[in-house]
Amino acid sequence: MMRSVQSIPLLKDLSELQKQQLIDQTPLIPYTANKTILTEGAFGNDFYIVVSGQVNVTQAIDDRVVHLNTLSSGDYFGEQIFAASISISTLERTKVLGIGSFGLVYIAKHVPTGRFVAVKEMYKARLETSKQMGHVLAEKDLLSSFHHPFILKYLVALQEERKVYIVTESLLGGELFQRIVNPAGVPTPLPMDSARFYAGCVVKALKYLHTRNVAYRDLKPENILLDSHGYAKIVDFGFAKKLTQKTYTLCGTPEYLAPEIVMGIGHGFMVDNWALGILIYEMVRCPCRYSPHLDDPQRACFTMSILRGKVEFRKDADPEWRRLVEGLLTREPTKRMSCLAGAVESHPWFNGFAWDDLLAQKMPAPWTPNVVAGDDVRWFSPVDTDELTELKEWDFVSPEKDWSEF
């Protein structure tokens, strides 16, 4: 038992006496085969160490139980205790990933355990000035309710006088955008199998969201990050919304906006299926809108041609890929192909695709990033330090509203 305790990073700062006391006060509980020990999403204070035998980790996805991992002697679980141990004082910023209008995203080291996490740090006053307070509260509430292998994993939300923080897992493989556009801005189309793999991750994530009546509303390669194994995960839920009826907010990225958003006639989660069609098209076709030589009017012209149903396909384009894209880019939402209904998964373009292996993350990824440390950010674009200096001005501005709900 002592050997198992000594191998756990979370407990490494305990003295030998404290570790022995922990062992003495920890009951040894035998479990019979197929006994459920812990249910996902149920918060508890228990921390489990596997002394002998094996523990299967499964998840119910799409009405099926999928095997995710097998734990053996020395492994541990019940990491709500890890999230509960995170505070502002225990985090040490190491590398900045990006800078936005309201704050920055960076990798931080959880000093007590040595683990690395991602932190989205935002200024309260800046959010209030931009009338984004409600969006951030909604983002935190939604993200904390999700449990899916292809959606960013939420850990905890924190705040202090002038800032709020959303702490999540760190995804160090960079943006999917960088897989289809090289650093010089030149489009680099993906092989069909690679596009199918990334699309599969997104399809499963969208189906999970739509089952819960959540519209993501900002699908694009920049909002899809790759983990250290090369799997794709949807991040940034600032525009996501739980729907009870049609919504009329104009939001998202222009090139990915569905016709019903542009026309302002009200929309639901079918807008995500439209954006999925654009994504699948761009991964394979890499349209000229990515060209650094294209000006804004030309980009607008390209977008409008798609909204009118004029999508360009090469004569030698894969026919099933083309039919899938056309099905997703159907102007009428009620006739549009849907992830929720299973039409995308069962489409011939995905024939032979091992969905169970994808969910269990047993399928080899098309590309695996070489990540050598928990704060290795080589796969992200360099950050403009001038922007960081400009943000610092908000360090001295106090918020005016009540942030107790965060």
TrEMBL record:
Cofactor(s) this protein cannot do without: Mg(2+)
CDD domains linked to this entry: CAP_ED (cd00038)
Keywords in alphabetical order: ATP-binding, cGMP, cGMP-binding, Kinase, Magnesium, Nucleotide-binding, Serine/threonine-protein kinase, Transferase
Organism: Aphanomyces astaci (Crayfish plague agent)
Domain Cyclic nucleotide-binding: 10-79
Gene Ontology molecular function, alphabetical: ATP binding; cAMP-dependent protein kinase activity; cGMP binding; cGMP-dependent protein kinase activity
Name the UniProt record assigns to this protein: cGMP-dependent protein kinase
Matches recorded under InterPro entries: AGC-kinase_C, cNMP-bd_dom, cNMP-bd_dom_sf, Kinase-like_dom_sf, Prot_kinase_dom, Protein_kinase_ATP_BS, RmlC-like_jellyroll, Ser/Thr_kinase_AS
A Pfam family recorded for this sequence: Pkinase
Positions bound to ATP: K120
GO cellular component: cAMP-dependent protein kinase complex
UniProt family annotation: Belongs to the protein kinase superfamily. AGC Ser/Thr protein kinase family. cGMP subfamily.
EC class: transferase
Catalytic activity: L-threonyl-[protein] + ATP = O-phospho-L-threonyl-[protein] + ADP + H(+); L-seryl-[protein] + ATP = O-phospho-L-seryl-[protein] + ADP + H(+)
Enzyme Commission number: 2.7.11.12
Domain named AGC-kinase C-terminal: residues: 351-406
Domain Protein kinase, chain residue ranges per copy: 91-350
Domain of life (superkingdom): Eukaryota
